[in-house]
Design brief:
alpha+beta; 6-stranded antiparallel sheet; single chain; Phosphatase 2c, domain 1; 5-stranded antiparallel sheet; globular
Length: about 250
């Protein structure tokens, strides 16, 4: 998907992983973005593989955050993120597939999210669980602001907005004076970062970023991004669903 207004450019995709393909399962990742003049809201979400309807939870949190926060501002954004997540949870409480119609049923919609709100060249990441966000100026890859993944006691354990104590795991990371943003789910972050999440793996990250930077049309850029994430080697290294969102700011 690509949005453009006031020279803001967004290119993003969510792809079904090879594991889900082999099992006949849907893609449980989702992403969306909204642009209003010099304001951008973008969110990616990774539905829990163990949850029956996590693809619904992922889609709902992305759309709810984008729809709500595009009318926000930097002074109120933290409160507005909390209110938007509560709105998404309320929608799930009433969802036809939530048979219990209470919070016990939310586990079936479990999903993480990484989102960003940006006005002009300043903004904030909001983040629960794994996945990652990056803010930087084009070419200044040694000065990136990173919203890192957060896991529990075990590497395979993460946190979801459907948990009762979700606010304990909601993290905010501010940035300013940047002109590029990237959001990704866990299916991609292992390719982009070294193990400590302080350094990028330049052999994967830089070719993608520079190609998106130098390709003028979505018609050219999006298929190339899809092919890279869908490459046989990438799927073999990580069979999970994959979402990657790149944004260029004025």
């Amino acid at each position: 998907m690509t949005n453009a207004a006031q020279h803001i450019k967004v290119i993003a995709t969510s792809l079904q992983g090879s594991l889900h393909k082999s099992k006949g399962l849907p893609c449980q990742d989702y992403c969306c973005s909204k642009v209003l003049k010099n304001k951008l809201v973008a969110v990616v979400s990774d539905g829990a593989g163990s949850a029956s309807y996590s693809q619904i939870g992922a889609r709902l949190i992305c759309k709810t955050l984008c729809d709500s926060l595009i009318h926000s501002n930097l002074s109120n954004i933290r409160e507005d993120v909390i209110n938007a997540v509560n709105t998404a949870r309320e929608k799930l409480l009433l969802h036809r597939l939530n048979k219990t119609k209470d919070e016990n049923g939310l586990i079936n919609f479990a999903a993480t999210f990484v989102g960003v709100f940006c006005y002009h060249n300043s903004g904030i990441f909001f983040h629960i669980g794994d996945g990652a966000g990056i803010a930087f100026k084009h070419g200044e890859y040694d000065k990136m602001i990173i919203s890192e993944p957060a896991n529990g006691a075990f590497s395979c354990e993460t946190f979801f907005y459907t948990m009762d104590d979700w606010q304990d795991y909601l993290r905010f990371t501010t940035f300013e004076n940047i002109d590029r943003l990237i959001l990704m789910t866990d299916g991609v972050s292992g390719f982009v970062f070294a193990d400590d999440f302080y350094k990028i793996r330049s052999n994967f990250f830089l070719p993608i970023v520079e190609y998106l930077e130098n390709t003028k049309t979505k018609k050219q850029a999006l298929p190339a991004l899809i092919n890279t994430l869908n490459d046989e080697r990438a799927q073999r290294l990580n069979a999970d669903d994959k979402t990657f969102l790149w944004a260029k700011l004025p």
